[in-house]
Amino acid sequence: MTMVGNENYERAQILVQALPYIQKYNGKVVVVKYGGNAMISKELFAAVMEDIVLLNLVGVKVVLVHGGGPEINEILDRMGIESRFINGLRYTTKETMHVVQMVLCGKVNKNLVDRISRIGGRAVGLSGLDAALIQAKKLDRGDGEDYGLVGEITKINPGVLEQSMADGFIPIVATVAQAADNTDEGYVYNINADTAASRLAVALQAEKLILLTDVRGVLADPKDEESLIHVIHPSELPDYRARGILKGGMIPKTECCAEAVAGGVKRTHIIDGRIPHSILIEMLTDEGIGTMILSEENV
Predict the structure, then answer these.
(1) Distance separating alpha carbons of residues 89 and 91, to the nearest angstrom
(2) pTM for this one?
């Protein structure tokens, strides 16, 4: 009898270690928000798609929610339309919204569907307009700012996602929304992808919400990547904001996670999309990465 090579033995051990996690998440819903550097890099793009397909094949019901900021900026630049942001949100004119809808629902969404199908997965591309999945009204933060056609979600109708997952498909969702008010008929709203992922996770009572970012997670010292805060409870977020640990784009991300937890999502994660296969590392290993935000009851 020949001895099994060390490399093959190690591969077998990795699979055995993943078994309890595969059993734990089998049949459960996991919502992944995908964007940033992981969407631009070809290597990271391939790794994310492989992670999604593998999870689906072992019985995890994955919903992939995506942005597409860089692609939108590129098309707007070609058209000579200025990209303008207010408090982290893209100011969206009617002209800009046409580009957002074209790029997100067309190019980006269908490229993701195509890639997953090419590596053996089954995906269906959707937007918030399909089956009135996401309905919204014009965003009013009460800060006196006009954000244009940026929407505030008023309702989620998750039936089309549930049916897609029941049929074995991976739903891939572009975050544009249908106008909820008849007076806004014909309008389409631009929705922040983190916010949409959070609300979809709540509507589906997901086991996990995972936000892929361009940083390791929440850092106690933004200049020191080794200062990662591994676990945060929602009650701690105001103190972190007051101390300046949370600032910029990390504030809305942590708020989305806190809202998801308050809505019944078991665990939420902000993880580093720059690390190949970061989703699998978080889901199927003892190691875990990034910052987990969860209620004290779910510790």
Answers:
(1) 6
(2) 0.92
